[in-house]
Amino acid sequence: LLSETITNSREGLTFKIDETNKTASLFNVKKNIKELIVPRTVEYNSTEYLITSIIKTGLYLETIKFSEDSAVKTFYGKAFSSSKIEEIHFPASLKELKEGWYYGLDYLKKIIISPSNDQFKFIDNKYLIGKSDSNNTEFDTLLYVRRNNNEFSIPSNIKIISSYVFIYRRNLTKIEIPTNSNLQTIESDAFSSSNIESIFIPSKVTKICEYAFSFCRNLTKVEIP
């Protein structure tokens, strides 16, 4: 559906547009922009296109914000890959983080979530949680953990550890999962290439996806009740 690529030369932004639904996705930031405020719409041939997703951003971005009336509802996988982003704002409209959305966000330190967004929480400025069911009130999915942690305790209410959450965490050596954990799924590459030395798989886990522990060369102990 994203049939055409358009460029806003003044702002240095490139979009993919859906001419049928009159929507657009941010596809690239060409200019050396450190702070970007994503607008609600982009105009092309005298037609307004509503910006509803982020597919890719630029190499130089450090902060990405959104207009107050933003309609962005989706961050796609690797949307911020290879950027230098340190701060991301989640608009009220954001509902979905696709698998691998966080991949490559090596410098991310701060996530600021709109008070009107009821889908995500950034806890203690350390980790991001979301919902496996957007219509539910339960925050049961671990989506992101800051890179400066040498060890991390998985909250007992978490049911899903998302893809890439701990990938390439060379400084991560210890993961604690309580025995009463509700954890059910460990998604692909969740701990890949980290330096964890042991892992406890609680009894409710029914699914460990491919490469979840690939290249964990220091992993010598796996405890399964």
Would you give an account of this structure?
- The chain has strands spanning 4-8, 13-18, 23-29, 35-38, 41-44, 47-54, 63-66, 74-75, 87-90, 96-97, 110-113, 120-123, 127-130, 141-145, 151-153, 160-161, 174-176, 185-186, 198-200, 207-208, 221-223.
- The chain has 225 residues and is mainly β.
- The strands form five sheets. Strands 1, 2, 3, 5, 6, 8 and 10 form a seven-stranded mixed sheet that branches. A six-stranded mixed sheet has the order 12-13-14-16-18-20, with no helix packed on it. The chain has a four-stranded parallel sheet with strand order 4-7-9-11, with no helix packed on it.
- Helix tally equals 0
Percent helix range: under 10%
Low-confidence residue ranges: none
Sheet/helix structural class: mainly beta
- In whole angstroms, the N-to-C terminal distance is 48 Å
Query: How many β-strand stretches?
Result: 21
* Rg over alpha carbons: 19 Å
* Portion in strands: 35-45%
N-to-C series of helices and strands: EEEEEEEEEEEEEEEEEEEEE
Calculate the mean pLDDT score and round it.
92
* Overall form: elongated
Largest sheet: 7 strands, mixed
Notable characteristics:
0% helix; single chain; mainly beta; elongated; seven-stranded mixed sheet; six-stranded mixed sheet
